[in-house]
Write the structure tokens for this entry.
Amino acid sequence: MEQQREQWSSKIGFILAAAGSAIGLGNIWKFPYIAGENGGAAFIFIYLICIAIIGLPVLIGEILIGRTTQLNPVGAFKKLSGSSFWSAIGGMGVIAGFAILSFYGVVAGWSMGYFVESVRGSFFDYTEVSGVGEHFNSLTANVFWGIGFLALFMFTTMIIVYAGVQKGIERGSKILMPVLFIILLILMFIGISLEGSSKGLSFLFEPDWGNVTGHSVLVALGHAFFTLSLGMGAMMTYGSYMSKKDNVPVAALQIVFLDTIIAIIAGVCIFTVVFATNQDPAAGPGLIFQTLPIVFTQMPGGYLFSILFFLLLTIAALTSAISLLEVVVAYFVDERGWNRHRAVIVFGSIIFLLGVPCALSYNVMSDVKLFGLNFFDLIDFIASNILLPLGGLFIAVFVGWVWGFDKVVVTLKEGAEKLFEKHAWLMPTWKIFLKYFAPILIFIVFLSSIGLLG
């Protein structure tokens, strides 16, 4: 089975697919609003430090586990440890991917729906943010709108994963990622050209340390971890399709660079137009679906801008969703002997069905609460606040303490011999960050995410 396992046809195919996994709604939607709430440039500076301390070291470790074993998260941990405990940790990643996609698909469906709304010019019926807010609420309250776009989004995701690693995921990433980047650049230049946009650039790139609090640092830590799709087995699964000749540290650095630069460019796109039209940069989660549509109505070329923006948001969501479904599919192909097509159809459909009550949480099931949370928020909390941080923590602990660092060093050097010969300090630095800094900081993220800290 191992010999027949698919692999990426090129290094750029892996980089674009993995970057696509990392670059999702978190970059285009979440990063700008948390930067806005935490003071802009100073927050970005702290975030970059957190990426270097947590994100990159753990990303290297997760990709390395996948490449070494050529297996899904469950099979990878089983092969390296022979322990049922570590196999269960791998299983936790598969469950996380399954759960996240069920509610992520709902928000991605909203992005798709907003793309249609932007084509229709619906936002130009309103002059106040409150009006767009009511429009958003009326759309999410519509059962057929929410479930319909969830179904369309999941169907699109399934088609790409169904086609396989090279013909589906890699080919799709080679098309979607350049398109995403081109749209971002167009939006950035349009934003910068607006009168008053310089205030947005100052907000992003001139640090104001007076706005930085302990909570800001916790948010930066958390986002540095979550933005790279760590802890859910996606990077491990993508790494399992790599060749032993591929350079893992360089690939990880390229993924981090693309993820970070796109988040910052997205920030430029959004804050230049927000400041140029005198809107609130700290509008929170409503920034994308409620504030920006009003911004589009107040700027030259706003109709085209709105279409491009929500197309961008949909593409970003799609590249991440592909990796989430692939985690589940790879498990059933590797461990259960299923063929890819059957696994995609069965589990893509099940994830859609689990997504239905998430979509209904904003209409007919809005009063159904468990632990004070609706179904959408409950699945989101369990996956994002518990499964992901624990998954990332255990990956750092496994590579740093359990696998055996002598074995890790040998494996990591495969494909990267010249890099470590030239820069002897890299290996001990990575080892320190992975063994000591990452587990402690991820544990802090975990405590913060479950509400015990910050």
Observations:
- The chain is about 80% helix and 0% strand.
- The two ends are 47 Å apart (CA to CA).
- Residues 386 and 446 are 7 Å apart (CA to CA).
- The chain has a mean pLDDT of 90.
